[in-house]
Design goal:
alpha/beta, Rossmann fold, eight-stranded mixed sheet, 8 strands, globular, 3-oxoacyl-ACP reductase, oxidoreductase, oxidoreductase activity, SDR_fam, NAD(P)-bd_dom_sf
Length: about 260
């Protein structure tokens, strides 16, 4: 069993994350599944078990709690090499997009979950990767520029705008982490898929979960992309993210803000 590969997949209890995790299980991968409460992963653990893959490890962690995320990463980093990390978990625009939500430390929820947490996980687990290991951040083509004077989204709040801004911050994070040698890329997997996030938003479904899974796993596993880091992919093609993500000064300001969050 020493040649069994291990993947950490966040947001795997449902939607796109579940399909990514099950695809990896069918390939014989061992799954590590961070979830808020272990019971959320019960159905996925059972489904993965039917593939014949090693039993998944379920890790309880509130991904909006950055202290808890740091503790989880320290624990996982000490348990042996990881071959893949897929940061798929995300907070959408919210059931009421006019309501500004925060985590317990006061960080706006979209930035907390969609930008800060993936950055921390990528940064803190990069040293635990196997030589060919990769990190994939699930992004979005929905990108809007950040107000660099209001990164915690305290003025003129709108949940959809906050979501789109957080996805630009995610690309900025990946570019900066890659400059430090972290093998991380960002991928927009597909247009609106039948996920809880899309259903909550009320948007029409235009893509399948298979569409998104294929795009994510291409960035995660394709040998042609070995060595590619700090890139943004629109599905299967390397693409340009929002122009603000290419501004080095803006990137540094945003990443400094991310790393200073409690």
């Amino acid at each position: 069993m020493n040649d069994v590969k291990t993947a950490v997949v966040t947001g795997a209890a449902s939607g796109l994350g579940r399909e990514i995790a099950l695809d990896l299980a069918r390939r014989g991968w061992r799954l590590v599944l961070p979830v808020r409460t272990s019971t959320r992963a019960d159905e996925l653990v059972a489904a993965a078990g039917r593939t014949g893959a090693p039993a998944p490890r379920v890790v309880e962690c509130d991904l909006s709690d950055h202290a808890a995320v740091r503790r989880m990463c320290r624990a996982l980093a000490g348990e042996g090499p990881l071959d893949l990390v897929v940061n798929n978990a995300a907070a959408g625009g919210g059931a009421d997009t006019t309501v500004r939500e925060t985590n317990a430390a006061g960080v706006e929820l979209r930035m907390a979950v969609n930008a800060v947490t993936p950055h921390l996980i990528a940064r803190d687990l990069s040293a635990a990767l196997s030589p060919a290991g990769r990190i994939v951040q699930v992004g979005s083509m929905g990108q809007l520029p950040l107000d660099l004077r209001d990164l915690n989204f305290e003025r003129g709040y709108d949940g959809i705008r906050a979501y789109c801004r957080s996805k630009v911050a995610l690309v900025m994070s990946a570019i900066e982490l890659a400059r430090d040698g972290v093998p991380v890329n960002v991928v927009h997997p597909a247009r609106e898929m039948p996920t809880p996030l899309v259903r909550e938003s009320g948007l029409p479904v235009v893509s399948t979960l298979d569409d998104g899974t294929l795009a994510v796993l291409r960035v995660a596993l394709d040998t042609e992309l070995a060595g590619v880091r700090g890139a943004y992919f629109h599905r299967f093609d390397r693409a340009e993210p929002h122009e603000q993500a290419l501004d080095a000064r803006a990137r540094r300001q945003v990443v400094d803000w991310i790393e200073s969050r409690p």
